Amino acid sequence: MNAVLDFTFSIPGYNLVEQLYCGSRTIVYRGIRELDGQPVVIKLLKREYPTFNELLQFRNQYSIANNLEIPGIVRFLCLEPYRNSYALVMEDFGGVSLKLYAQDQLLSITEILEIALQLADILHGLYCHRVIHKDIKPANILIHPHTKQVKVIDFSIASLLPKETTEIKSINGLEGTLSYLSPEQTGRMNRGIDYRSDFYSLGVTLYELLTGELPFESNEPMELVHCHIAKLPNQLGEKREEIPEVLSDIVMKLMAKNPEDRYQSALGLKFDLENCLVQLQQTGKIDHFIIGQRDLCDRFIIPEKLYGRENEVEQLLAAFERVTNPPISPLSKGGDRGVELMLVAGFSGIGKTAVVNEVHKPIVRKQGYFIKGKFDQFNRSIPLSAFVQAFRNLVEQILTQSDAQIAQWKDKILGELGENAQVIIEVIPALEIIIGKQAGIPELSGTAAQNRFNLILTKFIQIFASQEHPLVIFLDDLQWADATSLKFLQLLMNQTSLGYLLLIGAYRDNEVSLAHPLILVLDEVRKAGAKINAITLQPLSHLKLNHLVADTLACLEEVAFPLSQLVYQKTKGNPFFSTQFLKALHQEGLIEFSLESGCWQCDIAQINQQALTEDVVEFMTWQLQKLPESTQFVLQLAACIGNKFDLKTLAIICQLSEVETAAALWKPLQEGLILPQSEVYKFYQESESRIEDSQEQRNSPDFSLLSSDSCCYKFLHDRVQQAAYSLIPDDQKQATHLKIGQLLLQNTKAAEQEQNLFEIVNQLNIGKSLILERSQQIQLAKLNLKAGQKARIATAYTAALEYSTTGICLLNLGEEDSCWQTQYDLTLPLYELATETAYLSGNFQQMEQFADIVLQQAKTAIDKMKVYAVKIQAEMAQAKKLQAVKIGLEALELVGASIPESPDSSDTQQAITETTNNLNGKNIEDLINLPLMTDIEKLAAARILNSIGTATYQAAPEIFPLVICKLVNLSINYGNSLFSSYGYACYSILLNEKFQDIDLAYQSSKLALKLAENFNIPDMKASAFMVAGCSTIFGKAHLRETLPILWESYQSAVESGNLEFVGYAALTKYQNSYLVGNELSVLQEEIATISDVLTQLKQENILYILGIYQQSVLNLLNPSGEPSSFRGEICDEKTCLQLLNHASDRTALFQFYFNKMILCYVFCEYQNACQNALLAQAYLDAIQGTIFVLVFNFYDSLAHLAIYSSVPSEQESILNRVANNQQKIQLWASHAPMNFLHKFYLVEAERERVQGNKAKAIEFYDRAIKEAHENDYIQEEAIANELAAKFYLDWGKERIAQDYLIAAYYGYAHWGAKAKVADLEQHYPQLLTTILQQSARGYTPNETVYANESRFISQTSSSGNSGSVSTALDLSAILKASQKLSSEIQLDKLLSALLEIVTATAGADKCVLMLLNQNQLSIEGVAQVGQPAVVLQSILLSESKDVPVSLVNTVKRSLKTTAIVNTMEHPLLLTEAYILRQQPKSLLCTPILHQGKLLGVLYLENNLTTGAFTHERVELLNLLCTQAAISLENAKLYQQAQQAIQDLQQAQLQIVQSEKMSALGNLVAGVAHEMNNPLGFIAASLKQAKPTLADIVEHLKLYQENLPNPADKIIDHAEEIDLDYSLADLPKMIDSMTIACDRLKNISTSLRTFSRADRDYKVRFNIHEGLDSTILILKHRLKGNEQRPAIEVTINYGNLPQVECFPGQLNQVFMNILANAIDALEEANHGRSFEEIKANPNQITITTSVVDKNVKIAIADNGQGMSESVKEKIFDHLFTTKGVGKGTGLGLAIAHQIVVEKHGGTLDVNSTPGEGTEFTIFIPIHEQTKS
């Protein structure tokens, strides 16, 4: 289409005539060349400032097409520089695009064949010139409208390589046009692109030309890609009938998914097209023939199919499916949460990468991301290299997306990473393009930095791994992975927050031993429960290799056998070696294509004479040595860089220009030994005339942009790289690496050095022994320091240690110790880095050695502080807290902040006094405004004080006040620092403990929180929030308010990587949750979850204490013989005590005895409670200033008052002890009554009780209960109620005691303390009678409970006690469940409720309910977590895949419950298909019985854990099943009753209808009878009147004859009455009246016939009489009216015998059918005029006949007919198509019943919409009827 000329474009030397095309990227003009007047077409880039890639593609089409002498290619005249771009000048042969040409017309098949033949010639020409066009489509094909000459244009993405490999890319990054793209061009087919890709695009083009449609049409790009890969297009004949089948076959062959199945040559295609055209021209048609008979290819192509890897590919695809469709919500480890590690092992060249790439295909369907990285043999010291490559690849994919999509990613990334996004940018700089420049991040020390990095990188991965787009990360060559990468791999697999992630790791199993770091890490991952699967690839068998050779040579397998045998002997079935070997034979001319025979030939004898090595590296070396010397030299240096290398770097180290270097690489590019990684290589593929690095080329528009897009390559395989590297003599390798490093260093700009630092330093380090000049040694040491610091930031501590030790070695090449004198500023940071990274790498001995040197050589105390800080961290990491304190004190003395190692009370008092004086006259909240601390020495002291704060608190509490006071004093005197918030928070502890100044302590905590918020450094925030939440907030606010503060601390600690405070914050949060009375079962789950996290973080010390609390909770939850003893799986007191005493962990020891004291008291073991209180008291100094002191005082008082009466000698001391405790609690109660007042009152009540003051005791009990209730301390409210009950019980007031004890019972129950509830039931059954009896009545009779218990015990090894049943009732929960089940009466609702309750109660992931029907189980309900329940599907057990059938059958027959702890170890299930497929962890299958009869089976499974269904759970389910059985039985009865009611209602309706018909019959019979009497009289009278009238007339005539002249009066009267007319008409009137009487008589007869009453037996009846009577009754409806003419009734009666039947009922059938026919005709008349109806009149046709011993009555109408859906329901009860009040839906249903059930006949309907309906009745004729 021509357009208005845009005059903004003017090109010197050309006159623009018209605009031909204007697209998003280019503009095309028609013009005239001024020089010679030649018509031209000029193509321009639209953008004023085009990108490099746009310029590259623009130049590429000229550089390729300009050298093609092919008639079907548009001739390029020149490429003119124009503005910032080019003008591409082409010949103008008058063509238009084929897209426009065919747009408005469907081309004839002849014309299309002529076009296709020209295109086949063009593709053959491209094939001969080894060009792949890659964008064949109608828009790139020009056709001359008159001559029909065809030419191809646009070579912008064409390639000169015989084959291109393509990586998986974002849709926006794909080259080509999506609708015409070949499957391999999508990058998702695991194969390269060759000339056959253009055949596919040609096939799509021909499909579109022939049918006018594309084979695949979609607006969704990924859907199009999926179609090209996996879907077949519709046959062409379905789109256009006249397309011959053979032509359709040709197009479909072109569009085959695999290139091997397409045409292999354009000449073969041309032969078939010519055959079609000749037939069409000669005969006008195309007969079918076998296509492809001349399709021979003379190019040596080895198929890229995978041979012998079908099973391995299937395993990999199954792993991808498991990850993308996890069986449950991804919350647990391993595959269950959608995370899996798939290992692919095998020798080098065995095909690991090819197998892995097969996962590309399903990724398209799931719209996921596939990214990959490769560890390099020669760059093992670069940390996280493969991960970084993979994530750079991911960022590159994102950068190809639209601006809107990138904006969305930016929001997601920043939303998830927040201020820590810079951590990822440090590793992946390209991310900054997406999210913008980010603020710097605070430097963290030690493990905190590593933890932060791991956390942020994990979050980064989590953003991209989702259900919408799963993530696959492929890590190649894991055997060369660095330690940091292996650790991160382990972290990913153990990270519970991740899902939808498949990690694939490939490694050479012959290069790793059992002690290899990779194997050790994989073992750890397996132990942690993560899901790992492995595939080991074996060499190809001779059979599979023979298949490959046969496919390559396009011959029969038996023909290929001798050659494949030779290849197998040489390569041992190694796929890479085999393919390279075959290529070499072809290159050597030992395999040749014979044009005469049209096949490949080889001389086996000649091949055997070749001295070919059996070593793949030697073989590849031999291949490389055939290349030019210049190419070998370039490849040697490329191999030194790594598996991947860029042209710019390679040019530097080769000391050549980039153009010369690229020229040297062109030959291995063509041979496929190296592969381009982008399209930039095309910039260098021009002819030799332009290869020179001319000034003209350097001035071209795209040359200036080239630096921004580096040209990258990679070796085809590691073996190729190794072969290239082996070309360097061993004695020259070090020198080569050194030279490479030096050249890179000299030629890399300072700004780029940082980015390439590892690569430069690694090269120099390999050759470091050759560096002799001191200055160069020092320079390299500096570079190693930079590299080490960069590696440390990336948390690659092992690599950082290696760099730092290398730097130290370089410095120590001089004289001993001289570096400390001559290079102090370099030596100190190197040793500091080495010290820190040795500690972070876990090498404590090496750390000590480096640290000792620093402490000896450092010039100043400040210079030693970093090392001291590392030593403190190392000791803390090893749980040597006292040693950490000692080191800290040593460091403090050096910076003038000394603290005595063994302070006495005066030292403590002095420190506190100094701080008090410093604060004198200051408001503590004003300290927020202090200036920042700048004194370096004071900052160093503050850092050390901060680092030993926790250690002194826990292990040296006497030093703790001095440390904190010193830290606060530094802040007051020198300004606030990062460490001040921790100091203020800890100072609040001292204020509480030493001064009991609760208000000031609270202010100090608030100051700490505010300052931490202001600095907003997560590390400092974590410590300050933790201390404040632990120590002082409770002094003025409810303890519950500390929970969010502690959670904030936890999250900040996680964010900063401060694992120490991650543990402390989590521990304190759940300690406070326990003390505040949170529900125990919920608390247990939360503690278990956080314990998993802390286990991953290896927080063993914290886990000991948290385990004590978890065991306490479990003791309260689960009744046992010794509820106050720690003898559980979480905590064993004997082992635990040994560990805690050995570690001298005073805090943990206090918590141990503190928790024992509480349990002993709760379970009334008062003497033991007192003993544990005394033991805990010895460690009170370890928890000073915390709420634990006051809670200890509370329980200590209660325990001692409980034994008061039994120890007369100690009573005074007990009262004194209690008074002392009360004094402290009272103080706190005055500030925080919400936490302490009820405690104070309860102890007071107990004190008054033991002293006999009953009145005061009563008052204090009630006050304590009231306060505890109002402040939600549910457990202490229960304790107060229990103590009050005991008080009244001892007093003899049992009734009052009962009220308090019941309150206590429910208090403990609401707390979730089942063990305590059972304890109360056991000790006070007489006071709990109302509850216990109600429980028994409310659920089930005792014998039923025992029956279920016995079934359980018979299958398991559990045992119970007398309280187990009441425990399993689960109190209110079971009551609610029972009530809900018993309240449901409708089966579907009951099933849904039952499934919901059972799933929730049992802790199951899946629940299946089966019901018994006719002795067969059928599945009636399935519930799964996160999905709605599905009920009443009625699937037979034998046909189900939802349950293990064998297990269910066992339970069905045995009627016994089966609980399976671990399905993988149970012998019954080893071969069960369901178990092998789904792999659940735990199973439970239980029968549902009612009065000993099996009603159904309940199946449950848990996919998270083994042993999920405990004894208590089973008991609970048995009780639920008992209630469920009753409810199910009731529901079934209800369902039966409902069905009976429905049947009754239908019967009633039928009776009513029958009664109505009977009444109608009686009425009609009565009317007929009444009509007969007068009718008979009238008929008889008329009969007599007619002759009488004739006589009178005759007599009158006589008068007229005898009186010829009558009087005028007579004459006048005769005229007046018209006598003559009357005499003539009167007989006619009599006749008419007689006829009317006859008609009335017939009607009466018809009425009596229709309404005849049926007897209880059949009688003979004339069917025709019944039909006639019915028509007569309906005659009034058949008559015409003003809306329509009369309905015509056509009768075709056959010769029928009388039939034995019930006549009245048959008449009813005829009435219903005929009335419906009239209704249908009237409905069909709607919208039609009278004349239209008259032209096509309404008709009813009645036909009778005898057919096969049956009377057939057919009643048809020509109405509008009925649809299939209506036909299916037409005889259903209550179904009607008529409006409300117009039909009952019973007529035809009753008619059907009369014919079928009463008469043994059939009633059928046949209807066609728009044509009419016919009802056919068949009534059997009995023998006696015939006779």
From TrEMBL:
Residues 1530-1557 form a coiled coil. InterPro entries: AAA_16, GAF, GAF-like_dom_sf, HATPase_C_sf, HATPase_dom, His_kinase_dom, Hybrid_Histidine_Kinase, Kinase-like_dom_sf. Pfam families: AAA_16, GAF, HATPase_c, Pkinase. SUPFAM superfamilies: ATPase domain of HSP90 chaperone/DNA topoisomerase II/histidine kinase, GAF domain-like, P-loop containing nucleoside triphosphate hydrolases, Protein kinase-like (PK-like). Residues 1566-1823 form the Histidine kinase domain. Keywords: Coiled coil, Kinase, Transferase, Two-component regulatory system. It is an enzyme of class 2 (transferase). Gene3D superfamilies: 1.10.287.130, 3.30.450.40, Histidine kinase-like ATPase, C-terminal domain, P-loop containing nucleotide triphosphate hydrolases, Transferase(Phosphotransferase) domain 1. It catalyses: ATP + protein L-histidine = ADP + protein N-phospho-L-histidine. Residues 14-277 form the Protein kinase domain. SMART domains: GAF, HATPase_c, S_TKc. Its EC number is 2.7.13.3. It comes from the Bacteria. This is histidine kinase. It comes from Nostoc paludosum FACHB-159.
